[in-house]
Amino acid sequence: MTDLDRFIAGLLKAELHLHIEGSLEPELMFALAERNGVTIPYASVEDVRAAYAFSNLQDFLDIYYAGASVLLTEADFHDLAMAYFDRAAADGVRHAEIMFDPQTHTDRGIAFAAVIEGLLSAMAEAEAKHGLTSALILSFLRHLSEEAAFETLAMAEPWLDRIAAVGLDSSEIGHPPSKFARVFAAARAKGLKLVAHAGEEGPPAYVYEALDLLHVDRIDHGNRALEDEALVQRLAGEGMTLTVCPLSNHKLCVVGDLADHPIDHMLAEGLKATINSDDPAYFGGYVADNYRAVARARGLSREALVQLARNSFTGSFLPPEAVAMHLAAIDAYAAHAT
Ligand code: HPA
Ligand SMILES: [Zn+2]
């Protein structure tokens, strides 16, 4: 382990952009397929990993939705989330705001209750076991209709006090944020926070729509905002958090080479960027792997790494006292780390 690796491992982090279904490791996929008697189109764990070569977002999504077919019971969702929390805790994650895609499951006949109760029980266990706090983000699938998103929000009604935010994911191009302006307004009226994927593959116009029509509290990804200087100025001026995912960006060809990743450019522009893993089982690494890979590829300073970790807490939905506590811990660590 190098000094940089050690420094990153000890740096306290929040993870703000994580799809829990994207943390399904091939080993667990096989175990759940067997437990549930589900057939999957792979002969071995190696065979699954070999399928993880993507040239764009849709390539990945096709495999990601197919993988989720092994998740059937409340215990499956619990085990999935617990595996993520154990891994995240080992990476120095102290707080995680995790997205889940209910429609991926309810459209297969799985009860919303099984999905959310499995996740909630793992969240409670992670807090007791690791002191890792977490929050849930219910994400709408943007390739489906506005009506389907409203139905999903209605299904969530009995658990609204356990859900921090709604989000928007899946195929971005052709499904602009404007398609979900009314359902986001309804979620906001229920007191939920709002996030949306924008500017991963979609143009800067989609980032403007997420701001102006959805009124989001955070932008997931946001890479293509860099194409529009006025938008960059606005995001920086508003202190808008961007949940950036370096290994995902590389695997989905949002950046050709990690050496060209714009993370340090974002910080230099005053953008509140954070580092996250997105779908760690599919993109080759958890959050500390993302920090390490992009730190090496871009030669990031310790100051930049500390800034990114601080941003992850100030960009979270934690209450101000909790944010202040985590920031103080980061600053104490940075002052004493050798
Ligand atoms: O990176 C992503 N983008 C859009 N939808 C997703 N669903 C899981 N991961 C992603
Ligand atoms: Zn994502």
UniProtKB/TrEMBL annotation:
The record marks H221 as: Important for catalytic activity. One of its GO terms (biological process) is nucleotide metabolic process. Catalyzes the hydrolytic deamination of adenine to hypoxanthine. Plays an important role in the purine salvage pathway and in nitrogen catabolism. Zn(2+) binds at H17, H19, H197, D278. It catalyses: adenine + H2O + H(+) = hypoxanthine + NH4(+). It is an enzyme of class 3 (hydrolase). One of its GO terms (molecular function) is zinc ion binding. Residues 13-323 form the Adenosine deaminase domain. Its cofactor is Zn(2+). The active site is at E200 (proton donor). Binds 1 zinc ion per subunit. InterPro entries: A_deaminase_dom, ADE, Ado/ade_deaminase, Metal_Hydrolase. Substrate binds at D279. This is Adenine deaminase. Its EC number is 3.5.4.2. It comes from Novosphingobium olei. The keyword Calcium does not apply. Signal peptide: none annotated. Keywords: Hydrolase, Metal-binding, Nucleotide metabolism, Zinc. Belongs to the metallo-dependent hydrolases superfamily. Adenosine and AMP deaminases family. Adenine deaminase type 2 subfamily. It holds the Pfam family A_deaminase. One of its GO terms (cellular component) is cytosol. The keyword Zinc applies.
